[in-house]
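Continuing the series of single-chain predictions for the mutant panel. This is the parent chain; the variants come on the following pages.
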Amino acid sequence: VQLMESGGDLVPPGGSLRLSCAASGFTFSQFAVSWHRQAPGKERELVASTSRFGTSTTYADSVRGRFTISRDNSKKTAYLQMDTLKFEDTAVYYCKALSMSTDGTPQIYWGQGTQVTVSS
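Parent structure:
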């Protein structure tokens, strides 16, 4: 089982990035996916989430209107399009996959993270 993020980079304020989260070893379409981030000295926070088939999405207030989460189940990959980046978006970004087993036990997988740095 693996989630692998990629796409992190150093970008200037106002720039854009697209992060990818590639899944392997489990049935990706059975899992909701979310992106989280953790800045130095801060707790990890939820950035955006999408349902199993991408029909429902949620966003943190701080990124709504600038970030877009999406997924392609045929490629077992989720994405986070980040536009109009701000200094405060600097963080390590993590991908998370979540599913509930029939017995109510959650199955949770995390990626290793990818660094996004917004700097001039």
